[in-house]
Amino acid sequence: MSTEGGLLPASGAWRETAPAFGVVGDHPGDRQFADLGGFALELGGQLPQVRVAYETWGTLNADASNAVLVLHALTGDSHVVGAAGPGHATAGWWDGLIGPGAPIDSRQWFVVAPNVLGGCQGSTGPSSLRPDGRRYGSTFPRITVRDQVAVEVDLAAELGIDSWAALIGGSMGAMRVLEWLVGYPGTASSALVLAVGAAATGDQIGTQTVQLRAITGDPHWQGGDYYEAAAGDGPHVGLGLARRIAHLTYRSAEELDARFGNAAQTGEDPLGDGRLAGLRSSPDADRFAVQSYLDHHAAKLARRFDAGTYVVLTDAMNTYDVGRHRGGVAAALSTIQVPVVVAGVDSDRLYPLVLQRELAHLIPTTVGGLRVVHSDYGHDGFLIERDAVGDLVRETLAIADRASVASQ
To answer: CA 32 to CA 55: how far, in whole Å?
Structure first.
């Protein structure tokens, strides 16, 4: 795997400072932190202490009625918008969404974006320090989407927010939006659910399980206890394979063919010396252009993310089912009482439109039926098609506005 500028770190996780253990961590960047105490977990086990990293924009008003919760997808974090810089390896993952005059206008709304439980950018996860000063690694317990939302509920209480004006999320973030709506009724006035379904499908579990095997089959995985490894000795090969597989599900076949087809990478010859790439001394040489593209994204993720977090969060997505122990999906969704905008991307092959049609049909408060975002970019269209998604965000917040006026 190409390192693109030097050896890849054992983990790309943000590291906290812990003077008691002599650990000097990374710059906090724009993060704030909330220590929420211990948590018992849905599938058994517990975490003795949970810290959540989050970022905010705007000002919370006197009655805390203008708060908006934005929830990130698998490899996102609390840095929704903003430049790369100290503490933030990359710019915001949904740049343009929040700010003065943006779809979520920070002059009106107070926006909260937490890094999810199990994450690697400041919230408690496999790369975090345990109370004894060692990294959790293989001892980090199995968590679910419900556990993640339970932590977000406590964060809201810590911030003095009893009810959100709006819940906004796509993909894994939308799983948590649905869990908020079903598991915690009365805590939101509106919601936007993007590019997700009500439960993990066989296709999603299948492709995601292969990604997990790619990571855990890497000899450098070390059972999840690789955090003290030197640069270049972490499970970046497995993480890179997982990212390549995932990226193919995030984009559309049409886009990849139009963009790359079977063209060679500039200056390289895929026909090479007549041997399979894996048998050459350097499998990264003589590539197709699409191979180079996937290699780039694999190395980029390894520099800013953590293999242990990828495993923990992907497993949580595999176990996701909003209807579990609630009488099934239809029964669970029928309990939603606030207006919900449901949208999907027409070229999404990971979360196809049929899944959002089910949501729009089963949620009794769906606003205007299923909304379809046109995009050539597949699942990633929910992040890329900013104008279309921005319109849906504005509509969701307009619903929240009307609900606020009606309650006065």
So the answer is: 6
